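Many introductory courses stop at the sequence. We go one step further.
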Amino acid sequence: MVDDIRDYYIVSIVRVSESIAVLYFLYLAAACWRPGVAARRRLVLVAAAAAGVVGIPWVASHGAVFVRDWIPLLYVLIGYYMSGLLFVRASEPIEAWLMGWDRRVLGDPTTCFSRWPRAVLAYLDVVYMLCFMLLPAGFAVLMATGRHAETDRYWTLVVGSEFAAFAPLAFMQTRPPWALERPAALPDGATHRAAAGWVRHLTIGVNTFPSGHAAGSFAVALGVVGAPFGIVSVFVVLAFSIALACVVGRYHYVADVVAGALVAGAIRLVL
């Protein structure tokens, strides 16, 4: 087992997941030159891209194994916030298309969940806020079950799914449902207000199509397949819960969530 791990790191000088991250940062550097992006934002994006293009290979060749294994979390986080700097103005026709599908599927999205149990709605908002913690939790499961050799495969699935969700923001620019609708009528007011405040102050405040929450959550669930059935089941339930929370809390459109799940599934099929 030790020899297998050593050979894996010798052969894989730059992992597939690291290559995807480098390509994504190069993409940001190119996309920031689209018309309308402010000069200050361009400067930040180019600087972040340069740091990624230089820093990721450096970590791959000089970083400690532990750092290299866990740092993709940082790549995803930086990539997410940098993608928000590409937002120029919302496309109202695309927003109308997304909202139209929500109304076809849900009726009035702001009231259709108003009779759901308070505890269920509170649970959904909590798992939505803790979504990012799913990424390290899934990787911790791999380590705990002795599957260290699957590190790159796991992060390729997760990083690929997340960046595939963030990248379209350069050209498909929309506002989230909560920014366009009246507040959702949900009986669990306190938890939902906390989640809504979290979204307003700690996220990029614009909509990603596909949903990064859905793409990342399903990527993690697919990435831990092979672990004990009970553990995999927990991650699958959490992935579906987060996807549902995106719609119930009006953080994402239905189409965002479906597209996010499909992205994760498609990348898993490739791997």
